[in-house]
Every structure is written in structure tokens, then in C-alpha cells.
Amino acid sequence: MSTHAYEVRVAEDPADREACFAVRKEVFVREQGVPEDLEYDAYDAVAVQVLAVREDGVPLGTGRLLYGEAAAAKVGDDLTVGSLGRLAVAKEARGLGVGIALVRAIEDAARARGLAAVDLHAQTHALGFYERLGYEAYGPEYPEAGIPHRAMRRAL
To answer: How many CB atoms lie within 10 A of CB 49?
Structure first.
């Protein structure tokens, strides 16, 4: 277990955004086998990207928030709901609270934009994680990038 502290922040500069993409590549593309052309999309340019970074500069995790028109198709056209996605924590940082901190930072970003709720598409193995954070599953299980998912929502 790491004894290093970490911070979670909105990825404002190009270096932070690249760190977010590097974590996603490690977790989704390398570990989970998601094709790279599915992992990165046009939403990356408009999303609020959040980054967890260790005090020595090592990126530990990331996630993103879509809102407004960018989120509309993912949240049933309800512009008061944001879409949390691409939540990834590096293998060496799992179990340290990084995922929880990222979710809470994304929720804070959603609140700051006046949103009433956050939706997400959870891999089914992660349902318990999100349920512990107050998310409720709805709808049937479905495949996304070949991985079983369920839609979930939390009112803010």
C-alpha cells in the first residue's frame, strides 16, 4: 500500500489531460481490452476531466463529467442530469479511496453547473461500489464495449 498522499483536481492544462488519457489507456485499453477507437471520443474535448495525482506527480485515476447537450443522449435528454464516465483507477492505487474521491469531485463539478443528478453506466462488477456511494441501478443489463453494464443514477 502506498504511503503517498494524492490530490484530486479538474484537469485544466494539456499535461493533466494527457495524464487522464494515460490512466484510461492503462485501465480500459490494456487491462480490459477496450478498443482504443472506442475509448477516446469527441466528448473528451468538451468533458470536465478530473484527475487524481500522487504528490510525486504520478497519475492515479481519472473520470469525466458530461453535461448539457453533450450528456443529453446518455441521460434521456434531461439537461438537469450529468453523465459520469470513464472512471478509472490505476491498479497500484486501488483500495486507497481514489475512486470515491474522483466520484465526489465529479459530483461537485455537476453541482457547480446546477445539475440535479448524475447518471453513469457501471460495469456490473462495480455496481456495489457505486451503490455504496448512493447510486441506484435502473433498467436492464446491456453490453458496452463487450462488457456488461447497468445504468445508475444519484440525485445531488
So the answer is: 22
